[in-house]
Amino acid sequence: MIDKIKTKKARTKKAVLGKIAAKAGLNAHIKPGELTTAVAVFTSGRSGTSLISSLLDGHPYVAATPDQIMIGFYLFWEEFGDLESGALAEAFIDQFETLFNGAAHCKNLKSSSCGGEEDGFTTMGENRDQTLSADVDVFRASMKAMLPPGQTVTRRLFTQAMHLAYSDAIGHRLEAGAIIMLGLHTVSHPVVIALSEDFENPRPLHMVREPIQTLGSHFRHKQGAGDLKPRTSSMIVRNRYTSGKPALENLKFQSRALRLEDLHIAPKRTMMAVCGWLNIPWDETLLQSTFNGLKFWNDS
């Protein structure tokens, strides 16, 4: 089993107040190649991946995209990765439309379920009347400034530039030393291998939950969506009781499991432990569930 995160004293930092206007080059003080650490959030089935992602999302040392929208990123790369940088950025915008308009669903096959009311992206903000959004023109301009024109780029560079550009597009100013958070969601060997090829020291974070509660949540969620199938149900039962294993054996010592119950019972202590593991300072935003600066109320 992956070791539980151990609490480590973290430096305190004043919370960021308000939201900065989105603009190209907002994070020009950081070069794409400086984003060398990536934490990947994985699920064991209705175990709080959306919650942990939303808590980390507003941190000034975390460059992220909302929730699990990037679940299909490596599938996207297989199809479009050989395009020159400008066309590649346009393909990304087209395939992951949810990033820029939370009411829309992604065209990417693996991410196609992401978006809309079912993910809670159209009922955000204090009054639940706002939709997830990002400035696509700012994103496009920032990508253009960071990627060499007319040339193909590595998957690593695109991942780094994309996270900086998205931070620009939502007005999220990052601090030097920031890390990338990828909501890859589903654990699979090809995905984790690709992640470890691009980043020398990836940090897989596995969300886990008491298995019976996880199953109950899953069945309730699937039944409400009319998608409760016997074959799927048996697979879910099996997977819940084998969760908590490292994605790859060689990543065991840099992986951690985080219990959803701990996050609810002792949120500050648990998030301070996460900070210690990721080597980022404490920030009060870690107690606020938001995406792109808007309060997040979880999925439907």
Number of strands: 7
**Major sheet: arrangement of strands:** 2-3-1-4-5
- Radius of gyration, CA atoms, in whole angstroms: 18 Å
* Tally of helical runs: 10
Largest sheet: 5 strands, parallel
**What is the average of the pLDDT values?**
86
Note the run of SSEs as H and E: EHEHHHHEHEHHEHHEE
Which range does the strand content fall in? 5-15%
What gross morphology would you assign? globular
Structural class comes to alpha/beta
C-alpha termini separation: 31 Å
Helical residue percent? 25-40%
Low-confidence stretches: 7-18
Describe this protein's structure.
The protein has 300 residues and is an alpha/beta fold. Helices cover 36% and strands 10% of the residues. The strands form 2 sheets. A 5-stranded parallel β-sheet has the order 2-3-1-4-5. A two-stranded antiparallel ribbon has the order 6-7. A hairpin with a 2-residue loop joins β6 and β7. The longest helix is centred in the middle third of the chain and has 15 residues, at 155-169. It is globular, with a radius of gyration of 18 Å. Residues 7-18 have low confidence and may be disordered.
Distinctive features:
two-stranded antiparallel ribbon, 10 helices, 5-stranded parallel beta sheet, 7 strands, globular, alpha/beta, 300 residues, single chain
Architecture blueprint of SSEs:
Blueprint: E1 38-42, H1 49-57, E2 62-64, H2 73-80, H3 85-95, H4 136-146, H5 155-169, E3 179-185, H6 189-198, E4 203-208, H7 211-224, H8 230-240, E5 256-259, H9 260-265, H10 267-278, E6 290-291, E7 294-295
Parallel strand pairs: 1-3, 1-4, 2-3, 4-5
Antiparallel strand pairs: 6-7
Helix pairs in contact: 3-4, 4-5, 7-8
